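Standup notes
- DV: blocked on the single-chain target, sequence here:
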Amino acid sequence: CTAAALGILIQMGAFEGTLRWSVLNYYTLMSNALCALYFFFEMLSIGSGADTPLPGLKGAVVTGITITGLVYHFVLAGSFQMQGTLSLSNLLLHYAVPVMAVADWLLFSPKGTYRLSSPFLWLLLPDGYFLYATVRVALGATLGYGGNRYPYPFLNADALGWGQVLKNGLIMNLFFLLLGFLYLFLDRLMAKKAN
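- DV (later): unblocked, structure below
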């Protein structure tokens, strides 16, 4: 949770004496904020002797932050350059936090808690973001940099047209669903081995 919070604060410019709230419009920042909040409350819960709180929500958080890392690495990396502390933030938000979240889930979370419906429920996070971004832009907001109204190139209906954006969304949804079922498979496999 510290790595996510630090990465977010750097992106927001908190150590430069200013706050850029607009960066919170990015899925990367939203998924990292959700990760920081969840793991903070998990730390408090486990510290007081309780079990992992809401394991289904943790599945959504871990899947959501995995999406952040994978989409950045395979789709967005190299499309922009960051200097100085922003490069540190980039490393934290796109690589360190996703890897630590997945490692925590693999090593410490109770297994055997997910259902066949879980991967479909976990889609609510990226799909909710898609709706958020497209509705905000439709209402006149500019969420991207450099005059782009859309925060990510694959969502840019101005450049790609809505047909391609919806096709991108469908392809990504299928990929995210497969990722969710991979986590479900690992959850059941590890539960079976634990028994």
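- Follow-up: The first helix runs from residue 2 to 12.
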